[in-house]
Amino acid sequence: MDPRHIFFYGTLMRGFALRERAGIESWIRFAGCGAVRGALFDLGPYPALVAGPGTVRGEVYLCVDPGRLLPRADALERFDPRRPRAGEYRRESMTSRLDDGRTLPVWAYVYNRPLGAAARVPAGDYRRRTATAGGRAG
Questions:
Q1: Of 4, 8, 101, 104, which sees the most CB atoms within 10 A?
Q2: What is the secondary structure of 50-77 as a DSSP string?
Q3: In degrees rounded to 5, what are phi and psi of residue 127?
Q4: Which residue, among 21, 35, 19, has the nearest Cα to 102 in the 3D structure?
Q5: 37 confidence band (pLDDT: 50, 70, 90)
Q6: H or E segment to which residue 20 belongs
Q7: 3-state secondary structure string across 24-57
Q8: What is the pTM of this model?
Q9: Angle at 60 between CA 52 and CA 23, to 5 degrees
Q10: Are 110 and 117 in contact (CB under 8 A)?
């Protein structure tokens, strides 16, 4: 079964320029802040979620219109569902624990390239990272 929710942990969160340009507001409804298991790395203009120990903080949204949202988000994340291992990211199903204690299955975009010299984001929180890095909001 496909998740009915999506997890944004980087520049598709509220307040970032990409989110404002994405044109997805009518296709999602905020469900809460939460976290998924994994590690977060700073690639410069955006972050990368990878499998590993730790947690990554972000926002969970109900997909009100997944038929429109997922193709748009896939394109923004450079993911091709016909060739899932070929893109920069893969859309994967995982579990998010929301701050209110609920757990929900979510779609999340997992980085699909070598990390190189990317720095790990402390506490897996990109919003906090950008606030301490001068407000970079790609």
A1: 8
A2: EEEEEEEEEEEEEES-HHHHHHHHHHHT
A3: -60, -45
A4: 35
A5: very high
A6: helix 17-22
A7: CHHHEEEEEEEEEEEEEEECCCCEEEEEEEEEEE
A8: 0.92
A9: 115
A10: no
